[in-house]
Amino acid sequence: MTAAVQTALRAAPPVATEGFAADVLAGLAAKPKRLPPKYFYDAAGSTLFERITQLPEYYPTRCELELLRAHAPAIASLFPPNCALIEFGAGSSRKARILLGAAATVEAYVPVDISGDFLQQDAAALRRDLPRLSVQPVIADFTHPFALPLALATLPRVGFFPGSTIGNFEPHEAAKFLSHAGAILGRGAVLVIGVDLVKDPLILHRAYNDAEGVTAKFNLNLLARINRELNADFDLAAFAHRAFYNRAQNRIEMHLASVRRQRVRINGTIVSFRAGETIHTENSYKYTLAAFASLAQDSGWSPLAAWSDGQFSVHAIRMTDVR
Ligand code: AVI
Questions:
Q1: Is the CB of residue 208 less than 8 Å from the CB of residue 215?
Q2: From the CB of 204, is ligand 1 less than 6 Å away?
């Protein structure tokens, strides 16, 4: 790693984990109670999410991988030569590897993720497998401004945001993220983004209520994490996973429902629950192709192309109006 890159990494803002206690107490004091979905992904939650992606009912990962494999040459043809590929929230480089395989002239790959250990392990494997590629991980919360390695200053940039993580943002947050990504990538940059589609509510319902109960464990792990990290005494057996499709809002909602009246202590603060009261833990918005194109346009991006199998979509958009 060059000195310039080290300096850029040190200058990156601190990883936003210190707000966990404050966010949990504020969310549980709100009416209705809620918790931010970004806290699902501790080590246990990330392992559970990995299992979700392999479930027969959870179609998005399989569909996106197939779309990327089928259309990698067309996607890669939109990349400028000698560009840097910047992946927002890169848990593993599995999907980026498909693009990197089709775009031989990508000069640098910059996975940006909050989880440093995972990022470094994955970067080492990628360097072994693709020795021509400069792999420069950045440890940062990609929803906030972060510094890119200075060594990339002169390279054209392509962004990559797979997985329909954009669906976990409220529409106004999704617009804000797209503007923020545009400011980081710069005018003329291409962003390749995975977006889950509006579809038969039964398919959606099954994807978030799998027979094996892995999604339920993933949801409940949020309470287990609060117990582990915030000295709390949630009884996990006294909360139930609820996921349903909200047709009016085009979103799957995930909640944890208190099965009885109860009180929970968190860092010394008592939180009371009525029987049946829920904590809203996640929204997963689904878009039509046109609705996503219009969200992108409202955030300064021009649609270039979209690939879809009817279930999931991958869009390529170009930054035309940096804000
Ligand atoms: C990460 N994100 C796109 C997943 C989704 O489908 O909204 C998170 C998830 N929640 C339950 N299952 C998967």
A1: yes
A2: no
Tens-place pLDDT, residues 271-290: 999 999 999 999 999 999 99
DSSP notation for 45-111: HHHHHHHHHTSSS-HHHHHHHHHHHHHHHHHHTTSPTT-EEEEET-S-SHHHHHHHHH-TT--EEEE
pLDDT digits (tens, 9 = 90+) for 175-218: 999 999 999 999 999 999 999 999 999 999 999 999 999 999 99
> How far apart are the C-alpha atoms of 270 and 28, rounded to whole Å?
10
DSSP 31: S
165 C-beta closer than 6 A to ligand 1: yes
284 lines ligand 1 (CB under 6 A): yes
CA of 223 to the centre of ligand 1 (A): 17
Query: The whole model's pTM is what?
Result: 0.92
Q: In 3D, which of 150, 108, 157 has the Cα closest to residue 318? A: 157
Q: DSSP secondary-structure letter at 16?
A: T
CA–CA separation, 1 and 16 (whole Å): 25
How far apart are the CA of 142 and the centre of ligand 1, in A?
17
Look at residues 74, 56, 126 and name the one whose alpha carbon lies nearest to residue 95.
126
Q: Ligand 1 pocket, 311 CB below 6 A? A: no
Instruction: Give yes or no for a contact between 63 and 311, defined as CB atoms under 8 angstroms apart.
Output: yes
